[in-house]
Amino acid sequence: MLSFPIYLDNNSTTPMDPRVLEAMLPFFNEKFGNAASRNHSFGWSAEEAVDYAREQVARLVGATSKEIIFTSGATEANNLAIKGVYEMYGSQGNHMITVTTEHKATLDACKKVEKMGGDVTYLSPNEDGLINLADLEAAITDKTILITVMYGNNEIGVVQDLKGISAIAKKNGILFHTDATQAVGKIPVDVLADGIDLMSFTAHKMYGPKGVGALYVRRKNPRVKVTSQMDGGGHERGMRSGTLNVPGIVGFGKACELSQNEMAEEAVRLSAMRDRLEKELLTIEEAYVNGNAEHRLPHVANISFKFVEGEGLMMGTKDIAVSSGSACTSASLEPSYVLKSLGLDDELAHSSLRFGLGRFTTDEEVDFAIDHVKTAVHNLREMSPLWEMFKEGIDLKTIEWAEH
Amino acid sequence: MAYSEKVIDHYQNPRNIGTLDKESTAVGTGLVGAPECGDVMRLQIEVDDATGIIKDAKFKTFGCGSAIASSSLATEWLKGKSVDAAMEIDNMDIVEELALPPVKIHCSVLAEDAIKMAINDYRVKQGLEPIEDNKKHY
Predict the structure, then answer these.
(1) Does residue A278 share a domain with residue A201?
(2) Which end of chain B is least crowded, N or C, by CB within 10 Å?
(3) B5-125 in CATH: which number?
(4) Which residue among A311, A316, A384 sits closest to B60, beta carbon to beta carbon?
(5) Average pLDDT of A324-330?
(6) How many structural domains are present in chain A?
């Protein structure tokens, strides 16, 4: 039985796996100790649980447990990495390089760096969302201290050439940070093989709880340090103070363990499902996939439908929970800056839908979504004057619109 | 955003979608909005030459639910009205009927403009002067 609306927005967040919840429950009341309490068994059992989870998290990404700094999530991890590197390595330079399609947590942390006196270069990706490595190399100066490029994009799922980017960073003696929020737990991520120095990720995108994430900070070749952004008791090797969220961390650890065991199989299942969804939706005329179709996460599809309006499309697809390319909750329609960075015009950016499939998505739900979207696009086009003009062969660019 | 029941009803069961022959002298066409603004509305009326009564009205709209509902409602109101009476339709009547929130008032403005543009298109085809619209919306 289907229950509505069908959740297909797993890039926003994922439901918790029941096995994760089960692992967390004792740490709310029974084993409620503070992991920093050294004088009694309550503290010791909490610390033990955190240590175990730290191992689980580290193992998933090929790190050692000492390299995992727990945070409140990926936004905090991105802030800690970017501002923390700027403060720690300021004497070596003040320049950073990032990409226009990064998450706001990265872009806004970079903006803050600029306010603090730093310089940031924002690279534009190609139409398919991938960056040109030659552009990256050209942007490097003798003041560059950090390159930050996300692993897999949250809106279009494009996976960057991490090894190529990290090789350039290494060759130039520059630190490399990646926001791997959407990638960890979905595709194999290995900090050593990928040449990553700092990496942000979070539990709630991989069937763990909200409010807990991590920053991987490399300890060898090179040994990396970041200036803490939260001061206090000196937790997390002095890089992030604050009482540890023990239940959250236990859940994060469990989620990592489950992903490690099930990722390979799950990716095969999800990409087959995603490909089917995409293939069916592309049978609709004037429908386009956004982003590189080869280098991308297995569970994401982002599709634009020409000649239908974004908000009308969202209203017509109310039985599925997806994200649209426009933030139309206010009077000002803001098209997605990620899609605009790929060169899409406002119209096409507005009329795009992002599908994020997940561990609990079923074939039956995908079948429903296919029919639902096809019907909505058909109905909206039936009442769209633009579609009628397009069908009559009229070039919409030649019309003088009575604008408001 | 929560839509009113009436908006949802018009969105799901739009009245009078379609196209009239824009070359006919009995037909007036109004096309307002722009694709990059997210709304394009086309409203058409067919007038009975003998009586001056609007005997048919059709619309097609590219836009949000409120824009679709505003134009759908407008066609319902237009049918059976005289051209002169149609000229009196005010955007605030549409706002009230559909319980549009403030951010969606522009949808009703578009509908009113489309009505007036269609009427004037018809008038010009009949050799009459277009009626000046003194109401300033923006």
Answers:
(1) no
(2) C
(3) 3.90.1010.10
(4) A384
(5) 60
(6) 2
